[in-house]
Specification:
Structural class: alpha+beta
Helix content: 10-25%
Order of helices and strands: HHEEHHEEE
Number of strands: 5
Distance between the termini: 15 Å
């Protein structure tokens, strides 16, 4: 699914001190990946489909943000430890992931969330343009 962080359903939901609309691109991209993988957010006796509103609430209840509203990536696998991982090689702060590696990850399938706009924005990578080793297809929660 494509979720927009500024959707009125959750845009004004507070993460720590800022709203999902203001700084929720990584969390929104993560919610798209979870939902697209059929992973639900569970609590005792209940479950909810992952979307920016439900994932934000789950993260707030489970220590998923630091004081600067940044996602604590190590908390995400607690959603479903048997199916969710955030590997050590999962965060690249520069454009250093070779295109062939990105394609290999997507074929596994492995979720790829790209850090774009010089590190100021995150998008969920959904594929690539066949025959073009430079263009990826994304679900962008912000634009």
């Amino acid at each position: 699914p494509l979720y927009k962080q500024c959707d009125p359903k959750w845009a004004d939901d507070v993460m720590v001190t800022k709203t999902v609309c203001q700084v929720g691109c990584l969390m929104s991209s993560t919610s798209m990946a979870l939902h697209g993988s059929g992973i639900v957010l569970g609590a005792t006796g209940s479950t909810a489909e992952a979307n920016p509103g439900t994932l934000n609430a789950w993260l707030k209840a489970n220590g998923g943000y630091d004081d600067d509203n940044d996602l604590v990536e190590a908390v995400v696998p607690k959603v479903d430890p048997d199916r969710v991982a955030w590997p050590d090689d999962g965060m690249h702060k520069t454009n250093d992931l070779p295109f062939d590696t990105l394609k290999e990850y997507l074929q596994k399938p492995r979720v790829v969330i790209a850090n774009v706009d010089k590190g100021h924005h995150f998008v969920l990578v959904t594929g690539w343009l066949e025959g073009d080793n430079d263009t990826v297809l994304v679900n962008d929660p912000g634009f």
